[in-house]
Amino acid sequence: MNEQDTNVNPVVDESHINKVFLWKVAFIAAMGGLLFGYDFMVIGGTTTFYEKFFGLNAKTLGLSVGAAPIGCIIGAGMSMLLGDKFGRKKLLFVSALLFLISAVGTAVVSDFNLFMLMRLIGGMGIGLAAAMAPIYIAEMAPSSYRGKVVTVNQFTIMIGIVVSQIVNLFIQQHGEKVVETAATAAAAMTWNETMGWRLMFGAEAIPAVGFLILILFVPYSPRWLVKRGRNDEAEEILKKVGGDAYAKAEIADISSTISNEEVAKINFKEILQPKLFKIILLGMFLAVVQQWSGLNSIFAYSHQIFTDAGFSISDAMMSLVFQGLTMMIFCIIAMFIVDKVGRKSLMLFGALGIGIIHVIMGLSFQFNFGGVTIVILVMAAIAIYAATLAPVVWVLLAELFPNRIRGVAMGISVMALWVAYFILTTTFPIMREKLGMPITFWSYAGFLFIAFIVMKIYLPETKGKSLEQIERELVD
Fold first, then answer.
1. Share of residues in the chain with pLDDT > 70 (%)
2. Nearest Cα to Cα of residue 324 among 103, 129, 166, 126
3. What is the domain class of 17-264 according to CATH?
4. Mean pLDDT lowest for which of 60-69, 221-230, 304-313, 341-350?
5. How far is it, in rounded angstroms, from Cα 386 to Cα 96?
6. pLDDT (0 to 100) of residue 4
7. Model-level pTM?
8. CB burial of residue 248 (10 Å; 0-12, 13-18, 19+)
9. What is the phi-psi region of residue 368: left when phi exceeds 0, alpha when psi lies from -120 to 50, beta otherwise?
10. 25-54: per-residue pLDDT in tens?
11. Does residue 420 come out as left (phi exceeding 0), alpha (psi in the -120 to 50 range) or beta?
12. Which of 116, 291, 305, 386 could form an SS bridge with 327, CB 3.0 to 4.6 Å?
């Protein structure tokens, strides 16, 4: 480190923060989250149609759905290798370009292999955006605002999910209206098979173009600029955030965590240092906890869960809308409480609360207490997840890693997240069939109870601390 005393955490005056500038930049960066949510969920309303268009069987249909998650892992790997070299802004631009290519390409191709390639490219965009957007927002935000503005990214993910559901429903209903002028109902299905699913994917091009343009007008991350030795540029950006005094204090604090030898260099071997490796393991664990909480199985297999509980398919589809709205409402609540209650407290509450609900849900299936009981339990779990694990994990991943390795460490953690997601969603049908619904949910509960203990012991509270203070406390 520099000669500055790294044991001292300087007090930075945050009384003159330009809230308009801060929120504007945060929402533009978080458009990556909106495209993340749309691209990841749009496929749920399209499989019925493109399955028939391409003549897919169960295996090839599964491959088409799995292409995006595989792309997510590749995109996270790209962020790990390139995030600290080229910066958050440039990679967000690349993610916007990938989203646009995927949206247009998926909408126009007629060859299944090209369709798979386009879905893979979209997944790469998700992987990049998922890693870079939270980091960028966290590195721009003052300590007292960081939790709520990083949570904006999760909120926009929820918006993207809901928008994709609405777009799918609107286009599907338009296809059904063809029945009014067709001789048979089959004509409406034919329109959705040949054109409807294309429009569902292609609609993503509209926000993708907006993101591609708007990201050009946000500044570079000041912490990345300091890492590259461009302190003057970083100070000018920080002046826009909080004024001259704030900028000078932040530059001094950031510089104290980056030695002269580390400027403009990326040492991948450094992540193997015991203290840094321990933090990266913690980040990977948090990413896995968010996925293996079991909620993404509920999202991905709502139809099966609700039909197992005695609901009709139409009722199960309607539940998707309520799930999305519930996520949005409680994500907004998280924005208001994350900087007051604290990250650790919310993570502990989320793990324990969802774990208990999973236990009760397993009992409900065991003793055939279906119907409204399952609805209440699912909505309660989703509400807790949306206010705790879903947004707070992204906040923590953006905060925990030191300035000099943040891009690499975030990429590793996001790769772990997508691998965990892939394992979760591929094993749920097997567990449901082989073990039954009760044991499946009790397994998720057991993991969450273990996660509660691990986080209680090892997870630090980062509320109200600068990124540099967090680094000093964890590494020095």
1. 87
2. 166
3. mainly alpha
4. 304-313
5. 25
6. 41
7. 0.83
8. middle
9. left
10. 999 999 999 998 898 888 877 877 888 888
11. alpha
12. 386
What share of the chain in percent tops pLDDT 90?
48
**CA nearest neighbour of 468 among 305, 227, 215, 125:** 227
Band of the pLDDT at 5, cuts 50, 70, 90? Answer: very low
Q: Which two tokens stand for residue 442?
A: 């009790």
Read off the amino acid at residue 15: S
Burial environment of residue 430 by CB neighbours within 10 A (0 to 12, 13 to 18, 19 or more): exposed
Using DSSP's 3-state secondary structure scheme, residue 436 falls into coil
| Burial of residue 313 (number of CB atoms within 10 Å: 0-12, 13-18, 19+) | exposed
318: number of Cβ within 10 Å: 13
The residue with tokens 């979209």 is 122
CATH of range 269-476; options 1.20.1250.20, 3.40.640.10, 3.40.50.720, 1.25.40.180: 1.20.1250.20
In which residue ranges of the chain is CATH 1.20.1250.20 found?
A: 17-264, 269-476
DSSP string, 33-56: HHHHHHHHHGGGGTHHHHHHHHT-
pLDDT band at 300 (very low <50, low <70, confident <90, very high): low
pLDDT in tens, 61-107: 778 888 888 999 999 999 988 988 899 999 999 999 999 999 999 99
Q: Which two tokens stand for residue 135?
A: 């980091």
Polymer length in residues for the chain: 476
Identify whether the C-beta of residue 354 lies closer than 8 Å to the C-beta of residue 381: yes
Task: Give the separation between CA 439 and CA 421, rounded to whole angstroms.
Answer: 19
